[in-house]
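User: what does the whole thing look like in 3D?
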Amino acid sequence: MQQQQGNRFFFNVDWITVLIYIALCTIGFVNIYASIYNPDKAGVFDFTSSYGKQLIYVISGLILGLSILLFDGRLFNVFSPFIYGGTLVLLLAVLVIGNKVAGNQAWIAIGSFKLQPAEFAKFGTALLLARYVGSFNPKFRDFKSIAIAALIVGAPLLLIMLQPDTGSALVFLAFMFPLYREGLSGYFLLIFLGMIVLFVADFLVPTWILITIITVIAGLFIYNNRRKQKIIFSTILVTIFAIGYLFLIKVAYEKVLAPHQRSRIELMLGLKTDNRGAGYNVIQSQIAIGSGQVTGRGFLEGTQTKYGYVPEQSTDFIFSTIGEEWGFLGCAVVIGLYSFLLLRLINLAERQRSTFSRVYGYSVACILFFHVFINIGMTIGIIPVIGIPLPLISYGGSSLWSFTILLFIFLKLDSNRMGFF
Amino acid sequence: MDQLFNRKYIVQGLFIVIALILLGKLFYIQIISDAAFVSAESNVLRKIYKYPARGAILDRNGKVIVQNEPVYDLMVTPTEVKAFDTLALAQALEISVDDVRKNLRKARGKSTYQSTPFLKQISVQSYARLQEILYRFPGFRTQDRTIRHYPDSVGGQLFGFVKEVDSADIAKSEGFYRPGDYKGKSGIERSYEDILRGEKGVVNTVYDVHNTPQGSYADGKYDINAVSGERLISGIDMRIQKLGEELMMNKVGAVVAIEPATGEVLAFISSPGYDPNLLVGRSQGNNYMSLIGNPYKPSMVRPIQGRYPPGSSFKPIDALLGLQEGVIDVNTTFNCPGYYMAGNHKVKCEHVDGNISMRRGIARSCNTYFCHVFQKLITRNGMKNQRQTYQDWRDKIAKFGFGEKLDIDLPFEKAGYFYNSDHYDKIYNNRWGYTTVISQAIGQGEITATPLQIANAMAIIANRGYYIKPHLIRAMGDKIKKEYVDKNYVGIDTKHFEPVIDGMQDCVNSPWGTAILSRIPDVVLCGKTGTVQNPHGKNHSVFIGFAPRDNPKIAIAVIVENAGFGSTYAAPIASYMIEKYLKGTVTGSRAAQVEWMKNQNLLPVLKDKTKPVKAITKADSLLIQKADSTKKVKDSLRIRSATIKQSVATKPKPNKTVQLEKPVTEK
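Assistant: Here's the predicted 3D structure for the full assembly of 1088 residues, as C-alpha cells:
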C-alpha cells in the first residue's frame, strides 16, 4: 500500500469532492456569463471579459489543484510556518505597496494580475494552526494554549483589519470551530453567540430591559446552583461582562464602525430603509432573487440581471443571478451542493489519523461555511452587507485559487490519511 | 476515539441549521411573496402610450365637420439632458429662454428619470423647425398627438370641447384615464366620448438600470395597438347650421331645426356662438376663461339650457287639445272685443276681430280665442273639478315633450318648468281656477320650455301626431340606436291636425297672417309667430314652423331674445334657413335680406355699465386666428364694447306696415 501510494499521485483522492468542486466552478462560470451578458454583443466569446477571464481562472485553478495532488502531503506540515510567514509578509506588504480600491488597501498588483493576500492568509493560518495543534496536542484548557492559538489566528486577522477588510477578517472567526473540535470549551462558542445576540438585541430593545432580563436569568441560574460557589462566581462575572458589553457596544458602534458599516447593519435590522442609497444593493438583490420564483426566468432571461439592476452582480452578488434565472430550485441545488461538500469535508476530517489533517480539514470546512453563509445571507437580507465572495462561484482569480489551494491541500492530506507524519 | 468526536455532530448540525435558514428565507421571497416579482417588473417595464385619433364627425351630407390635426408634445427626460443651447430651443419653439428654464424645472419636479411633457401641442411648423435640430438636445423627444379641428368654425356649443383629463376625471374613471389623456368635456365630444376616444395603444418597453430602452417586452406580446375612435354621422346640415349662426350673429337666442320624420336635428344654434377652434390647443385655457367671463354667456347651450316661455307658439297645441277633447270644433267661433276677461283682469289682444274662427285665430294669433279654449277645457267638468281638468290638460300637453327632458344626446339638458296641480294648490292654498293660470293658455306665465322642446312640438304637428326623440348623431359607423326609431304618439287624432295646420299656413301665406313677410316662394311654410313677454327686458322674438306642408322636411324653432315681434326677426331667420335647406339657396330679393339680417345687432344693452364689457361674439371669433387668439380676443373686446352701446338706438324698421302681434299683458 505504502509503495503504491507513493507512485500513484491520485490514489485515494476523494473524487466526489472534486466533482462538487467542478460543479460549483461550472455554476459560477455560467452565472458570471449571465451576469455580464449583453444582448447587443451576444454570440462572441470574449477572453478579455469577466467570463472569459473566469474560464481561464477555472482551468488554471483545476490545474493548480491537480498539481497540489502531486506534492508529498508531508511537505505542507513541514513548510506550514514558512507558508504562514509568507502570507504575513504579503499582508504587511499590501499595507505598504497595495492598491487602494474603494477605500480598501487589499490588492497587490503584479503586472495585470492582482493578488489579494487576505485570501491566501486563510490557508496559511489553517496550516500553522493545524501544525500547532498536531504537534503539541493541547486541549485548550489552559490559558497558554488558547493564547498561542489566538495569536496564530489573530496576527493575520489584525493585519487584514488594518486594510481594512472587515469581511475577510470576520472569516477568521471560523477557526473557533476546529479549536472547539480539539477541546476548546463550548462556552467560547456560547459567549460568541451571546455577544451576537446581545449586539442585535441592543438595537431592537431598550438597554434597561436587556439588563433586567440578564439579571433575572443570572439570578435563577445562581439559585439553581446555590451550593456551587465556583459557578456562582463565574455567573456573576459573566453577568458583569455582559452588562459592560452592552454599554461598550454603544460606544464601539459609534467609534469603531465606519458610517457605511453602521448603515448596513441598521438596514439589515430594518431600523431604516434607504432603497436608493446604502440599501440599494440589498433591495435590488432581493428583488432579483425573489422574482425568480420557483423555476427562475431561465438562462439569460433574467431582466434584473440582463439590464444591470444589481450592482456587483458577478462578484459578491452572484447569488442573485442564480436566484433570478434558476429560481428556488437552482438556489436549493447550490445550497445543497455546498451543504453536501461541508458535511463531507467534516466526515473526511474525522477519518484522518493525524490531528494535523483533522484540524486542517475542519478549518477548510468552516472557512467555506462562513463564506457561504455570510455571502448568501447578505444577498437575501438576513446578514448586513459584508463584501466577501461566494466560494468557487463568484468572479475573481485570487478567491478561486485560494479556495482551490485550501481544498486540494486537504484532499492531498486525505489521500495520505493512512500515513503518519 | 475520544468524546470530542461527538462535537462533529454539533458542527455538522450547525451547517444544516444554517442551510435550512437560508432555504427558508429563499422559500419566502421566491415562492410565498410576490412582492419581489412585482418590483422586478416595475424596475424594467415602462408603458409608453400611443394616443389614438378621435373619431371624425360628418354632417348629413357627408361633409367632415370635425376632424383631427396633428400636433406634437415635446417630452423631456431630465436625467438624460445635457447642457444645451437654450436660446436655439426657445427660438425653435417660439417661447422665451425663461420659459425653457421654467419648463425644465417643472419637468424635473415631476420626475427626473421619466419622460415628462416639456411643451405640449407644438404646431406642425414649430415641429418641422425642431426636427432639424432635435439631435442637439439629448433627453428631448417628440410625441405625436392629434387635436380637434373644426373646419367650419361654427357649432361651438354643439361640438363642445376636448381637454386633458384632470385628477377628478382620473379618480372617477377608476384608472381608465391617465394623466395626459384627452376627454370630451361638453357637447357631442362629451356625450359620445366612449365612441370618439378610440382605444389607447400601449408599447411595453424594457429599460435597463441606466433608463436606456432595451427593446420590446416579451416580443410585444402584451402590446396593444391604438385604435382610432369611431366615426360619427350627425344629422346636422352644415349649410343651414352655418347660415343660421351667421343670421344669429350679434343676437342672443337659439335655433333648433329638426327633420320631423326621423327626429334628426338639422341645425342646433346657440347665440352668441363661438369658434370651437378657440378651445383647442395651447390657448384653450385663456379662451375658455374669456368665454366664461362674457356677459352674454356664450358658454350656455341655449337650445337645451335656455328656458323661454313658449308664447303664442303654444296656441296650435291649445287648438289641437280643444279639438281632441271636443270642447271646440273647426267651426267654433269666439267673440274677440280686443281682450279677454279672466275674472277681473284683462288679457289684451292686439286686434278687434269680433267673431273669430279657429283658423283665423291661429293665423292672427288671437289671445282671446285661445283663452276661451282654455277656459272650456278646464271648466268642462264644472267649476268644482278644475283641479283635475287642469292636471289632465297639463299631462296631455306634457306628451308634446314639455316639462320633461327630451333626452337629446347632449349633456346638461334642462327640462323647463310646467307645473302640476299640486304646485298651484300649494301656492294658492287650494283656491285657484282657470283664471289663475290663464296665461298658460297662451304660453306665458309659469310655463317655460327649451328651444329644443318647442322645435320638437313643431315636429309633432308636422308629423300629425307623433315625434321621434330628437338626436344629433344618427349613426356611429352603421349602428342606429333603436330609441331613435320609436314613434312617440301624443294622443291627438290625425284628423285634428289639418284644421290647425290650415291656420298655421295662413299665418305665413295669407294677407292677414302675422308672418306674411316670411313667405317662401314656391314653398308652403306653416308657422306661428310668438312675441314672448320677458319680465327682464324687451320681448323675445319667436317663430316656429315647418315646411313643406305636405310631407314636411324641416321643423324649426327660432328664438331671438329681446328682439320684439316674432315676425320681425325670428320668422325671417326661420324662413331663410328653411329655404336654404329645401332649395339649397335663398332666392331672389330674399338673398339681400339675408345679408341685412346678418348685420343686425340685437345684443341687449348690459345692465352693469361700471363693468368693462368683456365679450367675444360669433362675429369676433370668426375673425380670430387660432395662433394668437388671446391677444386678438382682447383687442376685439374694446371694439365690441363701443358698438354694443349704440345697438339699441339703431333698430331696423319693417318696410311695410303689417298687422303685427303685440305683447301680451297679464294684468
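In plain terms: The CA atoms of residues 105 and 429 of chain B lie 68 Å apart. Residues 46-234 of chain B form a domain with the Penicillin-binding protein 2a (Domain 2) fold (CATH 3.90.1310.10).
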